[in-house]
Every structure is written in C-alpha cells, then in structure tokens.
Amino acid sequence: MSVTINELEQAINSLFPNPKNITAEAVQRACINRHYYLIYYTMLIVIKDNFPQYDMSREGSFNNTGSHNRVFCVFEDIAELTGSKAAKRLALQFTDFLTKRHKADYKLDETFSSSEYSQCLRYAERIPELAQALIDEQASN
C-alpha cells in the first residue's frame, strides 16, 4: 500500500484541524513532525519533476550527506548556479525547518517554544510557495 501527498495532507488536516490553536507542547511537536514530512516528500517530488538533473539516491548528487540534507543541497546548488533568491530562501528555510523538526522529535528535555512552533507552521505554508516561485522563475529563464 502507498499513499499520495494529497492523502498525507488530508491526514494531517484530520489530525490537526486547527494547528494555530494547539497549545500543548507534545501535540505541537507531533504536528510539526507531520508537517515537516509532508514538506520533505513534496520537495522530493518538486526536485524529481522539475530538476531531474539531481539524483537524490545515495549514489547520486550529494551522496556524502543524509537524504534530508540533500534537499537543502539541491536548492543551495541551484541558488549558487543561477543566483536565484527563491532557491536560496528555499534552502535556508528548509534546513531551518529540518533543524527545528529534529529539536521537536529528539530533544524532549528542551523546551520547544511557541515561537519555534509558529515558525515551523509558517515554513509549512511558505516552502511550497517558494518552490513554485522557483519553478516559475526557472521556466521563464
């Protein structure tokens, strides 16, 4: 059995129908985890469909780093090669989202602040918008 990105998004919306109203830290952490993975898989599809020159396998582009960091590396590389501000912002926001997701998932002895939570929710909205802006920018060049 497999699932689509749309099914993942529907599940998140079902589990967390009003994410901005969540105040319990444990639930915020779980919410960020699910949103992060939706964004991660969405970015893999964006790369596959729009930037096929990047091989995301262990043997491919950026094979000296982890699978999640490869997404950052792709957008950083595009920014360096093209000067794209959208790609640079995408790279920075994605890597910060990953860092915050790591904190939410693994650093249970540290507080995950309401500002970190809010920032992650903004990333979940903004990263797909930046990806679309980058796709549109590259198509016009």
State the main characteristics:
141 residues; mainly alpha; 5 helices; 0% strand; globular
What does this structure look like?
This protein is mostly helical and about 140 residues long. The chain contains 5 helices and no strands. It has helices spanning about 5-15, 25-50, 65-80, 85-105, 115-140. α1 (about 5-15) packs antiparallel against α2 and α2 (about 25-50) packs antiparallel against α4 (about 85-105). The radius of gyration is 15 Å and the shape is globular.
SSE topology sketch:
Blueprint: H1 5-15, H2 25-50, H3 67-82, H4 85-106, H5 114-140
Helix pairs in contact: 1-2, 2-4, 2-5, 3-4, 4-5
Mean pLDDT: 95
Strand content: under 5%
Number of strands: 0
Estimated structural class: mainly alpha
How is the biggest beta sheet arranged? none
Helical fraction equals over 70%
The general outline is globular
Radius of gyration: 15 Å
The helix/strand series, from N terminus to C terminus, equals HHHHH
Work out the helix count: 5
Low-pLDDT runs: none
